[in-house]
């Protein structure tokens, strides 16, 4: 049986395909259209999934959409009526769009599938709908290594639910508790994202990265005015301070007055106030998540926890949750946001609708390292490079890894494109920019000269799994870069007293460990553990770098510039390479040096750069 899952029309549209319950392919539409967070019908992602599965469209048994539009429309109508006459302008804008494009989703899906995938297919008989939080919960539990687990879903909102607790046993899901709109932890965090001058639904991770520079001085104000938190972690927002129910903004004048001014204008200078606000809402978020997790443990008695929903991408909170040892094991869906809803919707049909058994092998992660996107062979790559009139060399793998590892030790920033593209927001060694973490200027260099983004943004370490406990206070694997832990004290540097007195961004220029490029201002790192099974080539590269440097870690950041999606194709990679200050590009077995791109002679780089 072949099931196609789709998420679309809000943000991060995506497609996934299952063949007899096995995850064959999944990808976000943005990677093909080059429009970040593309919300449109994922025609390119669907075509890719069909090609990867080696099927024709008529072989698809079901197409399942990740939420129920009528329930969502009901929530929107009830919300506007509840706040009427406030929000009339917003209501007049939303209603025509919903009636025309979103309410009758089945008709629209059929129209898009006929126009873009196969005009002759009988799509009407194949279309099913899942619920938003069911899709999230299914995406978290069914690929997890557990046959029984509690499931916590936290996001902005689906149809009605914003927070839900469920339990997975074998091939069944049972929902136990939920918190409904407008009371939303995701929207609370997004409100501060908006107020700090970042884009909602894309800038939340910036707020999280900014938090360690601040002091959580506003936590009491938040808890006294904006949100009431109960002992079991349930909560209520005070809607007097928010505008997202009926307006076109997240916050209102009362919110602005509470925090002493209007929201920061985008691209303006970030002040200590924004840092303190970030630290404060992050602390409140962590408190709520811990309380909910304790309640989940109490009512389910489960030892395993699965997480999904956009809030599950808050890796700082995840790290704190793990350290609390409320659950023995935690597994987080790597595509935890709405893109992962496509996967969850398909899995829900397979396991819940058709009652198919879950994989019973314990400790088997079915996400394949999240490497579920397209790959390109050397013939395809060379064709692109020739069309670009690029100067390049083909190398056998061992020789290539030697050269790349050596170039890392020389301070080179390298675009690294290998194998199948990652599904989800994180680059995990398939579409990454890599560098030497020991370089004290590398964080600023990568941010300002290559990524063209804010200087405070931290970078993640990719570390060989076997060396994890030597470098970080963490004894569990983190293949999806979804947990933050502290670097070991014996790897830290002594910080002078006068440096300890610095505040805010002034802290950025201080080296805090022997791997300063991946050590945040609070000595934390968002860790990716790398093993042989899921990414042998990346593993061998880090191993080779360790042989040269004595350091089993490399810097890993996504292969893109600010405002663009992660690269997908060889052409994307080449364009990003040529449009930035990257020194080297490696695509499968081909290596390109920036300094030689104006010299069209083929250069033998392995001879030019000695491997001593």
> Kindly, what is the distance between the CA atoms of the first and last residues, rounded to a whole number of angstroms?
54 Å
Low-confidence stretches: 600-612
Strand content: 15-25%
CATH homology group of the largest domain: Carbamoyltransferase, C-terminal domain
Biggest pleated-sheet summary: 9 strands, mixed
Helicity, in percent?
25-40%
How would you describe this structure to a colleague?
The protein has 612 residues and is α/β, with parallel strands linked by helices. The protein has 3 domains: 2-142 and 336-369, 2-Layer Sandwich (Nucleotidyltransferase, domain 5), CATH 3.30.420.40; 179-331, 2-Layer Sandwich (Nucleotidyltransferase, domain 5); 378-607, Alpha-Beta Complex (DHBP synthase), CATH 3.90.870. The strands form 4 sheets. It has a 9-stranded mixed β-sheet, sandwiched between helices. Strands 3-2-1-4-5 form a 5-stranded mixed β-sheet, sandwiched between helices. A hairpin with a 6-residue loop joins strand 1 (2-7) and strand 2. Helix 6 crosses helix 13 (339-353). The protein is globular.
């Amino acid at each position: 049986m072949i099931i196609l899952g789709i998420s679309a029309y809000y943000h991060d549209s995506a497609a996934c395909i299952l063949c007899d319950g096995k995850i064959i392919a999944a990808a976000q539409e943005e990677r093909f259209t080059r429009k970040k967070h593309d919300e449109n019908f994922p025609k390119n992602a669907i075509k890719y999934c069909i090609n990867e599965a080696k099927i024709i469209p008529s072989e698809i048994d079901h197409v399942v959409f990740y939420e129920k539009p009528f329930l969502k429309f009901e929530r929107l109508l009830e919300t506007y009526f509840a706040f009427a006459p406030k929000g009339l302008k917003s209501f007049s804008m939303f209603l025509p769009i919903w009636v025309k494009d979103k309410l009758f989703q089945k008709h629209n899906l059929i129209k898009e599938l006929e126009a873009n995938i196969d005009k002759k297919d009988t799509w009407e008989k194949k279309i099913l709908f899942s619920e938003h939080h069911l899709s999230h919960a299914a995406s978290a539990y069914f690929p997890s290594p557990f046959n029984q687990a509690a499931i916590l879903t936290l996001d902005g909102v689906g149809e009605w639910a914003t927070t839900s607790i469920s339990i997975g046993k074998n091939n069944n899901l049972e929902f136990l508790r939920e918190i409904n709109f407008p009371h939303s932890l995701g929207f609370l965090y997004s409100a501060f994202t908006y107020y700090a001058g970042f884009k909602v639904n894309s800038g939340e991770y910036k707020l999280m990265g900014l938090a360690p520079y601040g002091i959580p001085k506003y936590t009491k104000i938040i808890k006294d005015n904006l949100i009431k938190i109960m002992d079991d972690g349930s909560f209520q927002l005070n809607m007097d301070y928010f505008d997202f129910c009926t307006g076109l903004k997240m916050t209102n004048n009362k919110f602005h007055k509470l925090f002493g001014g209007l929201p920061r204008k985008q691209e303006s200078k970030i002040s200590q106030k924004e840092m303190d606000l970030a630290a404060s809402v992050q602390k409140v978020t962590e408190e709520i998540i811990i309380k909910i997790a304790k309640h989940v443990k109490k009512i389910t008695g489960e030892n395993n926890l699965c997480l999904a929903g956009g809030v599950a991408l808050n890796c700082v909170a995840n790290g704190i949750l793990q350290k609390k040892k409320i659950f023995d094991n935690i597994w987080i869906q790597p595509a935890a946001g709405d893109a992962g809803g496509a996967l969850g919707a398909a899995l829900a049909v397979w396991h819940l609708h058709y009652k198919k058994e879950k994989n019973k092998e314990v400790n088997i992660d079915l996400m394949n390292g999240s490497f579920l996107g397209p790959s390109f062979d050397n013939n395809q790559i060379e064709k692109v490079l020739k069309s670009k009139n690029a100067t390049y060399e083909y190398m056998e793998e061992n020789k290539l890894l030697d050269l790349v590892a050596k170039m890392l030790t020389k301070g080179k920033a390298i675009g690294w494109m290998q194998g199948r593209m990652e599904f989800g927001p994180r680059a995990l060694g398939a579409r990454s920019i890599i560098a030497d973490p020991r370089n004290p200027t590398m964080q600023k260099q990568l941010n300002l000269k290559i990524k063209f983004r804010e200087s405070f943004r931290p970078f993640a370490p990719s570390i060989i799994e076997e060396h994890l406990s030597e470098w970080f206070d963490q004894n569990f694997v983190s293949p999806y870069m979804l947990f933050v832990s502290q670097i070991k004290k014996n790897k830290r540097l002594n910080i002078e007293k006068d440096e300890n007195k610095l505040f805010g961004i002034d802290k950025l220029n201080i080296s805090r460990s022997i791997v300063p490029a991946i050590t945040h201002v609070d000595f934390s790192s968002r860790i990716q553990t790398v093993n042989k099974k899921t990414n042998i080539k990346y593993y061998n590269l880090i191993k080779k770098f360790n042989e040269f440097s004595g350091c089993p870690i490399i810097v890993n950041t996504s292969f893109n510039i600010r405002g663009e999606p992660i690269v997908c194709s060889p052409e994307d990679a080449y364009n990003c390479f040529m449009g930035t200050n990257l020194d080297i590009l490696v695509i499968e077995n081909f290596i390109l040096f920036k300094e030689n791109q104006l010299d069209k002679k083929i250069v033998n780089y392995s001879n030019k750069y000695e491997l001593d």
